[in-house]
Design goal:
The chain has 456 residues and is α/β, with parallel strands linked by helices. The chain folds into two domains: 2-268, Purple Acid Phosphatase, chain A, domain 2 (4-Layer Sandwich), CATH 3.60.21.10; 274-455, 5'-Nucleotidase, C-terminal domain (5'-nucleotidase,  domain 2, Alpha-Beta Complex), CATH 3.90.780.10. It contains 15 helices and 25 strands. The chain has helices at residues 20-33, 51-56, 59-68, 77-81, 85-91, 138-143, 151-162, 177-186, 255-271, 292-305, 328-334, 348-359, 361-364, 429-432, 445-455, and strands at residues 2-10, 37-41, 72-73, 99-100, 104-105, 114-115, 117-121, 127-134, 147-148, 168-174, 192-194, 206-208, 211-214, 222-231, 236-246, 275-279, 309-313, 324-327, 341-347, 381-384, 386-391, 397-403, 406-407, 413-419, 438-439. It has a six-stranded mixed beta sheet with strand order 7-8-10-11-13-12. A five-stranded mixed beta sheet has the order 3-2-1-14-15, with helices on one face. It has a five-stranded mixed beta sheet with strand order 20-17-24-19-25, sandwiched between helices. A hairpin with a 5-residue loop joins strand 21 (386-391) and strand 22.
Length: 456
Amino acid sequence: MLQKIWIYHTNDLHSHFENWPKIAAYIEEKRQVHDQMLLFDIGDHMDRVNVMSEADYGNVNVQLLNQLGYDGVTIGNNEGITLPHDKLDHLYKEAQFPVILSNLYQHGKRPSWAKPYQLLTLENGLIICILGVTIAYTPVYEKLGWEITDPFDSIRDMLHEVRGQADVIVLLSHLGINHDREIARDYPDIDIILGSHTHHLLEHGEMHNGVLLACAEKYGHYIGCVELTIDTQHNQLVEKKATVQSVDQLISESEKAITTLKEAERNARVLMQEQVAWIETKLETKWFDSSPLPQILTDAIKDWCGTDISMMNAGMILDSLEAGVVTKEEIHRICPHPINPIRVTLTGKQLKETVQRAAEEKMEQLRIKGFGFRGELMGKMLYSGLTYTVEEGEIKQVKDVFVNGDFIQENASYSVGTVDMYTLGSLFPHIRDQEQIEYFMPEFLRDLLSWRLTEA
């Protein structure tokens, strides 16, 4: 006899709660029509860019997951490295679902709230094993007091541990599409990989080495579904296919979700009215020119990190601050990024080349999504402790660079305070490729801005 099982999945919501009431209504409707249904989230459900998740450190996210009766989740980097250690350690205290995560440790043991795998026995007797791993940003996790291990090694170990115990194996992977393809190549015992992290959309799934990959993009734009056909006589998976549902095409909204979000927003607004500072005059922000507020933060990075110079794009500050009381909500509004300060050491030659790259118009105009950046565009690169001259022409050419008034020496070493965003991607290769990068955590840039304004 053949029987169907439906697995619904969400990923990378990033606290875009505007889509959640439709998602909740859709899942509630599907529970009424399916005999056997499972529901999973694949991480980055929380993002502190949203004032609600900022105010209570993601507890509202757990409340929403509880209400929908998730059968399991794994964590993404937003849960893992944008929360202080104690906040992550308590995030799932009220969770009514298992957090399935095998590659995170604390003092050599997995945290009490994480399970390395979950065995689910369905009504028809089928046993499904759920594995879960997250991306290993090792230096950042270590700075926060966690130990993160290689996810590939962890998957291998878990597969060995559950061998012979399950009829179907599903991996919750917050690793990204390329890593998911590698896992499918190396571990064909896995039947389905529910993916995330790189925000890819697989409308009909993707088959690699007999493993079905599925993912539902980002921000709650889609809900993913994997339909399994089971031969119940032999407890054998005979067919698997993936689809997605566009949330834009949905009409119904969950009143319960709407009520929960309204209450969370009211509570958040109250908490975020806490006064941070009082300023006598307006602090203006300009993205393509020198302006006081982004410069204040750039100077603060230099002092916080104790470096020769600091550098930061003006686009990190989204708006100006008016004179008068400055609240936590205002600071969050103008600097919402989950971005931390870092310290690196560059040679004079590397530093000058980095200044040249930063001065290019295409870098100032660059619109970027990801790497923790939650703004519009990069803007002018600002410095504290560094000045330079340029030769104007068709392309702006950096001529002379001075560090604290002295002409830069190509073979000398200079400590640089900057932002962890520059260690990712191809923005500034000399910063990205440094072997020694010191992360200052758990403070975000907005915490440094608050610190400096409080001092003023």
